[in-house]
Prior knowledge:
CATH superfamily of the largest domain: Thiolase/Chalcone synthase
Helix content: 25-40%
CATH architecture of the largest domain: 3-Layer(aba) Sandwich
Strand content: 15-25%
Shape: globular
Number of helices: 15
Distance between the termini: 53 Å
CATH topology of the largest domain: Peroxisomal Thiolase, Chain A, domain 1
Amino acid sequence: xxxxxxxxxxxxxxxxxxxxxxxxxxxxxxxxxxxxxxxxxxxxxxxxxxxxxxxxxxxxxxxxxxxxxxxxxxxxxxxxxxxxxxxxxxxxxxxxxxxxxxxxxxxxxxxxxxxxxxxxxxxxxxxxxxxxxxxxxxxxxxxxxxxxxxxxxxxxxxxxxxxxxxxxxxxxxxxxxxxxxxxxxxxxxxxxxxxxxxxxxxxxxxxxxxxxxxxxxxxxxxxxxxxxxxxxxxxxxxxxxxxxxxxxxxxxxxxxxxxxxxxxxxxxxxxxxxxxxxxxxxxxxxxxxxxxxxxxxxxxxxxxxxxxxxxxxxxxxxxxxxxxxxxxxxxxxxxxxxxxxxxxxxxxxxxxxxxxxxxxxxxxxxxxxxxxxxxxxxxxxxxxxxxxxxxxxxxxxxxxxxxxxxxxxxxxxxxxxxxxxxxxxxxxxxxxxxxxxxxxxxxxxxxxxxxx
Length: 452
């Protein structure tokens, strides 16, 4: 099949609607710096983060996904019987067998719809992208029955006390997928890179916390970015009939964001990949001193990184800044992070400005799995923007003290895998319309309520 032979597929398959849920409490990163006794700017400048969302034992992955799906259905006045696939991407595991998706089926079973395909997908932060891909592939397959798909990408990003804890966070994004969408997935431009690496993993079933090799993980992230970007650009060049495609052919960039500074570095590194393809171009003059740098050394060269960041400073603000806003306010969300970036872009840039623009999206999950795709904005995004209402909702959160965050983490540590248990977290921190954990019985069965 040639790259342009797509006439038999449903047209303009992509994202029709988006909803995002994040906890009602957050802590400011400058206050975390003081609380942790580190130098001012270590988290705000060094990590590029502003605020960090957190929860206690009153919420879990299933409750936040219930909230996101229910709110998406209500805000867009969707019929529960019009959903034919429900796909969850998460690495936050409550049960080693029972999928989060099965709990979400309570929302649809109440309306008589039990014929819904899809299940959970897990591989670190990549699960949300895989769930999205499965939904799109379903719509473009002989299995499609004409109904919509919903993709839920969400996680609790939790770390033990120490250097990684400031990169915590929590959030979930729910997306309605179908044909004739305003945010269209471009066909023939997907690229993927996968390999085996122990950069971040969760082998201890007695703890919610991961094992992290931070420096190695950053290197894996960048190496996977390079591989995906090179393959993507080759395919884009074929579609555009262009020998040397570059970031100039991309209008906006959304990258998986464990913390904002890594996104900055990866976007900057795109210029190094462009330079390697078009080294004689004068616009890459600042990178000429690195022309003979071995590739493996380039991944850890601070001088190259500084040159690339300097070269791309203006374009970063224009192409990446709008997508970076929300992740900087919430923190890491693992599987939800890259989709929160896309929601941020659609919220920060007016619909008329976005029309016909190409949005590059890079998803990375440790272990490792990575993919790169692009979207074309072909319809109005005003409703998505106004319905998300992200700036107003973020500003309405309660800003808590770092000790409250530490206390909430201690509660979760002490009650992980607990049964015959009633959560102790205050319901004052649960907003109206949000699901919460009511109790866990002596068989580890979880029961949820929605706050009036």
